[in-house]
Structures are given as structure tokens and as C-alpha cells.
Design goal:
alpha+beta, globular, binds cytidine-5'-diphosphate, 12 strands, Ribosomal Protein S5, domain 2, five-stranded mixed beta sheet
Length: about 240
């Protein structure tokens, strides 16, 4: 047993933070919070606090990256030095490069890049406070920021993880569950078409456990999608 590891992660059919197996942590999203960005969103998800800002379509620098037939989407995921309990060394590292890449791939599928040839759409995700599930929080906030910027998109992209903790399949792992649990499965979807644009796995599942966790994560994504829509409705009205 590691230092700080709880004896059990599931007690009397509940998780250590009192949640049911299929319960999300509380989520709040506010659209349009930054004056100087073309679009932005602030998200709180359990202990995660995330700011997403979007710029563009705008001129591409360096110019050789420009594509004659479409816009390029660039995503940068950054964890603030003070966002985790052990200070995070500022600047890019392997983890943030990987998360930036999977975030771009999760989002570029829905953005109508062909409408804006020779331009760039830039998305910046700043993790101000981290408590597991920051890639899902970042993708969720970024897609609201893109919508807030008025960038034409086929859909929003909600994301949510499921995992295996103390032998149980549970939704939306917190940091203790992420650190000491058996597996984590972050997923992002496009709710209208039901496509999966992010699927990663850390740890081990049996095939049956994987299928159960995958279905649960998709259910979580659909709940997150409702909260994204409410945030946009609150700012812009409509149904
Ligand atoms: O955040 P996410 O679950 O998408 O990614 P992860 O790489 O599985 O990280 C899980 C959690 O570990 C993060 O959300 C942080 O709470 C924590 N972490 C940390 O404490 N220090 C780091 N340098 C990186 C992550």
C-alpha cells in the first residue's frame, strides 16, 4: 500500500466522496468570461477549475503552416504551476503535449475548418486547479469557448471519464480514485451523430468491464452536454 492510499475506495456501496457509482461531480460552466478573447468559457468540475479561450479565425503565423483549403485548429493545454499539490514545473512537458494533441483531435472533427481557408483557430486551455479529469474538463470548456466565438461547428463536444475503482465501474473519477483506482477511460463524443472523438485508457479492464465503463462514460458525456447547452443558453438565450 502506498503512502496516503485509503484502505478502501468503496464503502457500503458508496465512493469516498459519497457519490453513487454513476454520479458526476458538480459542474458549472460560464460562457464568454474573457473580454479580449473571441470566445471563452470558465468551468468548474469537482475540484477542477479551467479557463478556455479561443481566437480566430485569424492570420496564420508562421505562414507556412497555413492550408490553402481550410483553417488549422491549434490547441494548447497548460497546467498552472499552482494547479496541483506538488508544484508543476512551468512550460510544456510530454503530458501537456499529448493532451494538447488529443484535445485538437477531439475538437477538429466538429469545426467547419473548410469555411476559413488560410486561417488559424487557436484554443488555449489553462488548468488553474486540477483534481483528475482535466483533459475532459478542458475539451468540454474549449468546445463552449469555440461556440462562444461564433465558430461554425457541427456539434458541441462534451467529454467525461469512467473507470474502475475498488473493483466497481464508476463515473468521473476524482484524484484519489484516479491515483489508487485500477483504470480510467476518458471519452469525448459528438452527441448529434454519436461519434467518439476521444478514447483513451489508463489501466486494465476485462472486455465486459470496458464495455460497461464505455457506456457509462457516454451517459456522463450526455449529461455534460446538457450543462454546456445551458451555459450557452444563459448567455445567448434560445432553446
Ligand atoms: O487530468 P487527467 O485525468 O485528464 O490526466 P492525468 O494525466 O490522468 O492526471 C490525473 C490527475 O493527476 C490530474 O488531474 C491532477 O490532479 C494530477 N496531476 C498532478 O498532480 N501533477 C501533475 N504534474 C499532473 C497531474
Amino acid at each position: 500500500m502506498k503512502v496516503g492510499e485509503p484502505e478502501r475506495l468503496i464503502i457500503d456501496g458508496k465512493r469516498l466522496d459519497g457519490r453513487a457509482f454513476d454520479e458526476l461531480r458538480p459542474i458549472k460552466i460560464e460562457a464568454g468570461v474573457l473580454k479580449r478573447a473571441d470566445g471563452s468559457a470558465y468551468l468548474e468540475w469537482g475540484g477542477n477549475k479551467v479557463m478556455a479561450a479561443c481566437y480566430g479565425p485569424r492570420e496564420v503565423h508562421p505562414r507556412h503552416l497555413a492550408r490553402p483549403d481550410s483553417a488549422i485548429l491549434r490547441c494548447i493545454y497548460n497546467m498552472a504551476a499552482f494547479s496541483v499539490s506538488d508544484r508543476k514545473r512551468p512550460g510544456p512537458d510530454r503530458r501537456s503535449v499529448e493532451i494538447s494533441k488529443v484535445t485538437r483531435e477531439a475538437l477538429e472533427h466538429v469545426v467547419f475548418t473548410h469555411l476559413f481557408p488560410r486561417t488559424a483557430i487557436d484554443v488555449f486551455i489553462e488548468i488553474l486547479q486540477a483534481n483528475a479529469g482535466t483533459r475532459c474538463s478542458g475539451i468540454t470548456a474549449a468546445s463552449v469557448a469555440l461556440a462562444d466565438a461564433g465558430i461554425p461547428m457541427a456539434d458541441l463536444v462534451p467529454a467525461c471519464a469512467a473507470g474502475k475503482v475498488g473493483g466497481e465501474i464508476v463515473l468521473d473519477l476524482n484524484d484519489v480514485e484516479d491515483n489508487y483506482g485500477e483504470a480510467d477511460l476518458p471519452v469525448a463524443i459528438t452527441p448529434k451523430k454519436g461519434e467518439v472523438t476521444l478514447l483513451q485508457m489508463d489501466g486494465n479492464f476485462t472486455r465486459e468491464e470496458f464495455e460497461k465503463a464505455f457506456k457509462l462514460a457516454i451517459k456522463g458525456c450526455k449529461k455534460v452536454h446538457k450543462i454546456q447547452k445551458e451555459a450557452l443558453r444563459k448567455k445567448y438565450g434560445g432553446t
